[in-house]
Specification:
The protein is mainly beta. It has one helix spanning 9-13, and strands at 23-24, 29-40, 44-51, 56-62, 79-86, 93-102. It has one domain: Nucleic acid-binding proteins (OB fold (Dihydrolipoamide Acetyltransferase, E2P), Beta Barrel), CATH 2.40.50.140. It is built from one helix and six strands. It has a six-stranded mixed β-sheet with strand order 1-4-3-2-5-6, with no helix packed on it. The radius of gyration is 15 Å and the shape is globular.
């Protein structure tokens, strides 16, 4: 069963997740990262990532044809490629693309059950 579902604010704050460890990225580019967690906002999906170099970042994805850049279907623990670019009228850097590279490493293959 997939655990791709994002948590609510209430669910996130009841965990030991440390929001202070994450900040918004301040440079454009394409980066490889692991999806640590994700949380529904009012009109967005906020995702928390650890980049290959160890930096912890957060990024918001807004509804685009109902899919939030595909983040809604990606399981935490997955490796992804993230693309960040600046806005046309704003100096802010935005998440523009997400591509799944690999699912979480400890996830069993489809159809296989864990043996005890």
């Amino acid at each position: 069963m997939s655990n791709s579902r994002a948590k609510s604010h209430y669910q996130m704050y009841r965990t030991d997740f440390v929001f202070a460890d994450y900040s918004f990225i301040d440079e454009e580019g394409t980066f490889t990262a692991v999806l640590d967690n994700k949380m529904w906002g009012r009109m967005n999906l906020t995702a928390f990532f650890t980049l290959e170099d160890g930096r912890k970042i957060m990024a918001s994805a807004f509804q685009n044809d109902g899919n939030y850049l595909g983040l809604g279907e990606i399981d935490p623990g997955s490796t992804v490629e993230l693309t960040f670019r600046g806005g046309k009228k704003s100096p802010r850097i935005y998440l523009r693309g997400v591509e799944l590279i690999a699912p979480p490493p400890d996830e069993p293959d489809d159809g296989e059950e864990d043996e005890e």
